[in-house]
Amino acid sequence: MNIALIIIIVVAIVLAIVGGMSSALNWLLWVALIVGVIALIAFLLRVMRGGKV
Length: 53
Known about the structure:
The chain is an all-alpha fold. It has a domain at 23-53. 87% of the residues lie in helices and 0% in strands. The chain is built from 1 helix and no strands. The chain has one helix spanning 3-48. The longest helix is centred in the middle third of the chain and has 46 residues, at 3-48. It is rod-shaped and about 70 Å long. The N and C termini lie far apart (63 Å). The mean pLDDT is 82. The chain crosses the membrane at residues 26-45.
């Protein structure tokens, strides 16, 4: 096989994988932000109530 054809196939496969993962990573980013906000609220409530940190 021609080396250029192999390179094009590899690049196409990598782009397809990255394209599929970007939507999953975007979803995971929102989940991480929501969990982070919930943890921050729980931490602030604990500090305001005078509990151990």
